[in-house]
Structures are given as C-alpha cells and as structure tokens.
Amino acid sequence: MNFIKKVFSKEKRNNILYIVIDSARYDAAIRAKTPNMDNFGKWEKRWSFSSWTFPSHHTYLMGMMPHTNPQGVFASEVYKKDFVKWVERSGIDDVAFKNFVPHLSLTKFLKKYNYETNAMVSMPVLNPLTNFNTAFDSFELMDNHNDFAGMIEKIDFSGENPKFYLLNLGEAHYPYRLHGEPDVPILHGVHGVFKHLDDFVAEGEFREESDKFFNMEQMKKMQNKQVECIEYIDNLIGKLFEKCPKNTWIIITSDHGELFGEGGFFGHGPIFHEKVFEIPFMEGKM
Questions:
Q1: CA distances from 142 to 146, 151, 157 (A)
Q2: Whole-angstrom distance, CA of residue 284 vs CA of residue 13
Q3: Is 224 helix (H, G, I), strand (E, B) or coil?
Q4: Is the model's pLDDT at 40 over the cut of 60?
Q5: Which of 223, 276, 279 is nearest to 254 (CA)?
Q6: Residue 133: CATH number of its domain
Q7: Does residue 94 register a pLDDT over 90?
Q8: CA end-to-end distance (rounded Å), the chain
Q9: Number of domains, the chain
Q10: How many CB atoms lie within 10 A of CB 144?
Q11: pLDDT higher than threshold 70 for residue 246
Q12: What is the pLDDT of residue 111?
C-alpha cells in the first residue's frame, strides 16, 4: 500500500517553470500587448524584496514570491501562506516543510522530492561561479543577455523525474534592445563595475568618469522600448507553452522594476522609489 502511494505521488508531481523577466516594471507589463500571457493568467501587482537582481533572485530561491504588501497582518502569516502554496505548485500532497530548513533553499527542497533542477540566466551577476548556483543539476549563463529563444530550444521535459527550470530573461533589462538594434551607452551593473573598476582606480585614488545623465526624452523612449521587449518575450512564451506538459506549474514575474525619470532616477539598484519595487506576477498550471 505504501509503495502504491509513493508511485502515485511521484506521477502527479508538477514540472515547475519559474520565469523572471529581469527589470520589468508592473505598468510596463500592463501596457504591453501580451496575448499568450493574458491567455494563461492575469497580471497581479506585487512588490519585490529588493531593488536589484542578485538579492531578489536569492529571495526567490528561498522559495518566496514577490509579496502582496498586506496591511494589518504579521509578516509570519504572509510567509506561511507563501510556503504552503508549494503544495499546489509541486503537486506533492505530503510536503514536509521542515525540508526547507536549515538551508532555506528551494532547489535543495525540490531535490529531496527527486526534481531535476536547472537554471539558465542572462545577467552575468548570476553567473554559475557565484553562490547563486546552489543545488542545480545544470546551470548556464547565456552568451547573450537577450537569448530567451535559445533557452526555449534547450528546455527538455523528458525523463522520469519532474523538472524545475529557473529562467532569468534579459530582454527587458537595459539597454532594452533586441538582436540587430543600435547600441546605446554602456552602463554597468555591479558585475561590470567590478570587472572594469581597475580602469578607474589609479594609485589608490578613484578617478571619476561617467556618461551624461539621460534626459526625459531619452528615458521615455527607453520606457517604450521595455514595453516592446515584453511583447517580444510574450511571442516567445507562446512557443515555450507549446513545449510544456499539462502538469507544468508556471510562475512569471520580475525581480525588480525600473525608473525612467520618476523622482530624477533612472534604472534600478541603489535607488529607493516605489516604482523600482512594483512588479508583475502571475502563476498557475498548464
């Protein structure tokens, strides 16, 4: 009897596809024409735990989602509801939440239930040599920051064990351009800053050099470009959905928003503004 229950439980487990559209702010997702995602679910406004990529993704790999910002409740109640949702997401009725501790790792938790864990990322700050690469069976930094199409080609749901895929998409991240489009000034994130920092340090002193700050006309154009990039992603997501078995739970969200002139800010990172924390979210089963 126990053997029969164990086999049945394994067969009903869901594949899990976790799609993070890097830098996509909530109102950009609402503006974009996204028929494939609209057919799958409805965008919900949520809030990121962080204003930049690395810590935000670490939070997601703890098993947590962008939060709903409820008032009048204790944070512990929000966390409990979030973690209990993994019963539905995974399709495993007998989830033991003590398996999340002491590591607080979604990948290690899923591996205890025989999941194959995979990641494909666009942002170099998430590269496989960082401590973000924990308990993944496969982990790849894509050659280009806007290669969602290449990720789709590599995704494979075959085999006996359920699959977990984390995808970090770079199309909606600065410089918001797709293949063959003209370059814009290079603005480094923290990975690029460290990589090129020696160029700005001479004899122990920092040599300041920066690009001219964007004007509002430039930022408006880039804001519109992000919307176009989300529409491009939606077209590819239609192809990805065709590859997903019916027992696939899909999460689509962002890691943080983006500022396009609000409050005198551009981008994300060391910025405190509500628009950099507002992000889109939807989830459900195929």
A1: 8, 8, 20
A2: 14
A3: helix
A4: yes
A5: 279
A6: 3.40.720
A7: no
A8: 30
A9: 1
A10: 12
A11: yes
A12: 94
Average pLDDT of the residues of the chain: 87
Domain housing 127: 2-285
Q: What is the per-residue DSSP string for 177-206?
A: --TTPPP------HHHHHHHGGGGEETTEE
Rounded Cα distance between 29 and 7, Å, is: 40
What span, in angstroms and rounded, lies between the C-alpha atoms of 129 and 77?
Answer: 35
Helix (H, G, I), strand (E, B) or coil at 116: strand
- For residue 125, which phi and psi values (nearest 5 degrees)? -65, -15
Cβ pair 267, 259 in contact under 8 A: yes
Residue of 93 and 126 predicted with greater confidence = 126
Q: Is the model more confident about 217 or about 118?
A: 118
Structure confidence at residue 195 (pLDDT): 55
pLDDT of residue 4: 37
Q: At 155, is the secondary structure helix, strand, or coil?
A: coil
Amino acid at 257: G
